[in-house]
Amino acid sequence: AQHQNLITNVHNRNVTNLSGKWRYLTDVNRERRGYEKDMVPIEKWDIHEYNFPTSDWLYVPGDWNTQRENLFYYDGHVWYRKKFTYDKDENKRLFIYFGAVNYKAEVYLNDILLGKHVGGFTPFNFEIPDSLLQEENSLVVLADNVREFDGVPSFRTGWWNYGGITRDVLLVELNNTFIRDYYVQLDKNSPNTIKGFVQLDGQALSQNVAIEIPELNKTIKGKTNKDGKYEFKEKIANVDYWDVDNPKLYKVKVVSETDTVQDKIGFRTIATEGTDILLNGKPIFLRGISIHEENPLGEGRAWSREHAMVLLNRAKELNCNFVRLAHYPHNEHIYRVADEMGMLVWEELPLFWAIDWESEKAYKIAENMATEMVTRDKNRASIIIWSVANETGDHDARNKFLTGMIEHTRSMDDTRLISAALLKNAKKSTKKVKVVDDYLGKYSDIISINEYFGWYQGLPQIKDSIRWDIQFNKPFLFSETGAGALQGFHGDSLTRWTEDYQSYYFRETIEMCERIPTLRGLSPWILNDFLSPQRVFPYIQDNFLRKGLISDRGEKKEAFYILRDYYKKKAERNR
Fold first, then answer.
1. How far apart are alpha carbons 493 and 499 in whole angstroms?
2. 3-class DSSP assignment, residue 439
3. Which of the residues in the chain have pLDDT under 70?
4. Which residues are CB-neighbours of 525 under 8 A, at least 6 positions away?
5. What single DSSP character describes residue 54?
6. Would the CA dihedral through 243, 244, 248, 250 be positive or negative?
7. Cα gap 238→537, rounded to integer Å
8. Residue 568 gets which letter from DSSP?
9. Using one digit for the tens of pLDDT, what is the confidence trace for 331-352?
10. Neighbours of 199 (CB within 10 A)
11. Contact (Cβ atoms closer than 8 angstroms) between residue 301 and residue 329
12. How many Cβ atoms are within 10 Å of 371's Cβ, its own excluded?
C-alpha cells in the first residue's frame, strides 16, 4: 500500500492533532518482532521483550536524536505508538496525515498496515476505512532513518540525520467528496490573468465549483470533468500585488457542491530578463541567507510556526528579503510565515553530493519528492525558486537525471524559476578566472554557484584578483559563501575559526560581489550554526558546522553585523 494522493492545505481543514507523547521502542537489530507480511500482531510484543505500555516516550513532532542521549547517533528502526479515541461522523471520510517522517515510514492502525512512504522531508496521507476504527485505536508508526546509497539524499550528507516523526501528525475529517487539491496563481505571461485548477476526490466527481476572491469581487465558476478536475484561466483586475514590502494576501475560497476550503494567497509574478530577476516586472536584488531546518529555540529539527517566526525574524533583522531553505523541503509553517512577512524563498530537493545518478529507484524517489513538494507549496507567493540539487558534478548521468527533475517540476508549476546550487568548472578555471559553464545552466533560469575562496583555498584577499566568467546571459547568484567561526573566539584577522577571520572573509566577499556586474543576489552559508556529523574538530566544532552568523545558542557573531549593514546599503541603493 503506497501513500495516496496528497491532500493540500490540511491546516485549514477539520483536523485533530495527535502531537504530544508517543511510546517508543528501539529495534536495533531490525527484527520486526511478530511482523509477517502486512498482518501485524503488534500486541504480541507486549508478551516478551518488547512492551509498549511500559516503554518510555518521545515527543511528536520531534527527532529522537536530541530527545534521548542514547539515540544521539542512532540510525535504525524506532517503533512509535499513540492510542487515541475518535468519534467519526458516519457520513465523512477520515485520513491520517504526516508532515514528515525520516526517512521511511510504515503506518499501522489496529494491527493493519495503512501504507508506506519513502522520503524524509515531504508529507503523505492515508485513508482510514470505517471498518478499522475501534473504540480505542492503536496507531503504530515505524520510522527508519537508515541511509542508503541509492536513496535521496544518499548515504553522505552535510547535516544531521535526524530520525523520527519530525512534523505534525493530523487526523483529517473530510466530506465524502472533497476538494483534495487546487492551484490559484497569476499566469507568468500575464499579470492580469489568474489561472489554476480544482481537483475533487470521491464518488461525485462531476460538480459545479467556484473560486471566490471577495476582496476583488471576483468569482470564477465552472464544472469539473468526469475525473473531478476543473481548469481555469481568467482575467482579473485591480490586483494589489504581493511584494517584499507589501506582502498582500487575499482570502481565497474554493467551493464545490460538497465542500469548501479557505486559503490566503498572494498574487505576484517572478521572471528573468537577461541578467535581471523581475518581481512584478521590477528588478530585484536578492539579499539572502541560507537556513537549515534547525530549532532556533533549543535542539533538533525545527517543526513549528514559532520556530519559523524566530528564524525568519532573524533573517529580517539581517535586512534579508530572501532565504534559501536548504537542502530539502522544510515544514509547511515556514512557507506560510514567509508569505505573511514578505520573504522570498528558494525551496530545494535533497539531491545532494553522492546520489546514484544511474539508479532508477533514486530517480523515482526524487520525482515523487518533487511531486509532493510542489503539490504542498505551489500556492505560496513567497516561493520564487524551485531548486533541483546542490553541489553535484557535471556529467552525463547526473545531467540526464536533473534535466528530468527540471522538466517534471516545470510540468507541475511553470510560474516559478528553476535553479540548482552549482560549482565552478575546476578544469577550465584558473587562479584568477573562474569559469561557470555547467550543463544545467542551459535549463536553469538563474545561475547559482557555491564558492568558498578564502576558506577552503587561500586567504580571503584572493578574492581581490578573481574574475568570474559566466557563460550564460542569465542572473547570477552566490547560493553559498562563508567561513567558520566559534562565537566568542577572537584573534587577529588571519587566525582561522575566530570571529575576526570570518569578518575579514565577509568584507572581502562583499567587495568581490560589488565587482560582478551580473550578480543579482547571494545567500551566504548560513544563518545559524547547526549539527553536522562531519564537523568534529574538538573544542571548535564539536559536531557543529560553525559557518553560522549566529551561534547554536542564538548569539550573533561580528559578521552578522557586517552583512546586515551591507544589505541595508544595498536596499537603500536599490529603492
1. 8
2. helix
3. 1-3, 31-50
4. 290, 450, 480, 481, 482, 547
5. G
6. positive
7. 57
8. H
9. 999 999 999 999 999 999 999 9
10. 20
11. no
12. 16
Quick check: 503 and 563 in contact, CB under 8 A? no
In Å, what is the CA distance from 13 to each residue of 33, 173, 285?
A: 37, 8, 37
Supply the DSSP string of 547-558, one letter for each residue. Answer: --SB-TTSPBPH
Write out pLDDT tens, residues 57-105: 999 999 999 999 999 999 999 999 999 999 999 999 999 999 999 999 9
State the Cα–Cα distance between residues 350 and 373, nearest whole angstrom: 11
Average pLDDT over all residues of the chain: 94
DSSP letters spanning 443-498: T-SSEEEE--BTTTBS-GGGGGG-EEEE-SSS-EEEEE----B-TT----TTSTBS
What the block records as the C-alpha cell of 146 is 537508515
Pairing of strands 433-436, 447-450: unpaired
Q: Provide the 8-state DSSP code for 76.
A: S
Q: Phi-psi bin for 543: left (phi > 0), alpha (psi -120 to 50), beta?
A: left
Q: How would DSSP label each residue in 333-378?
A: HHHHHHHHHT-EEEEE---BSS--TT-HHHHHHHHHHHHHHHHHHT
Residue 421, all three cell numbers: 546550487
pLDDT tens per residue across span 27-58: 887 766 544 444 445 555 554 566 788 889 99
In Å, what is the CA distance from 341 to each residue of 304, 315, 337, 386?
A: 16, 11, 6, 20
Question: What are the cell numbers at 420?
Answer: 540548482
CA 550 to chain centre: 21
The contacts found for 297-302 with CB under 8 angstroms, 24 or more apart, are 298/66, 299/66, 299/531, 300/62, 300/63, 300/65, 300/66, 300/67, 300/162, 301/61, 301/62, 301/63, 301/162, 301/166, 302/330, 302/331, 302/334
Q: Cα angle at 63 between 57 and 67, to 5 degrees?
A: 55
Which DSSP string corresponds to 296-314? Answer: TTSSSB--SHHHHHHHHHH
Grid cell in block for residue 108: 499501522
Alpha carbons 186 and 188: distance in angstroms, whole number: 6
Residue with cell 472533497: 178
Residue 530, helix vs strand vs coil: strand
One-letter amino acid at 492 equals D
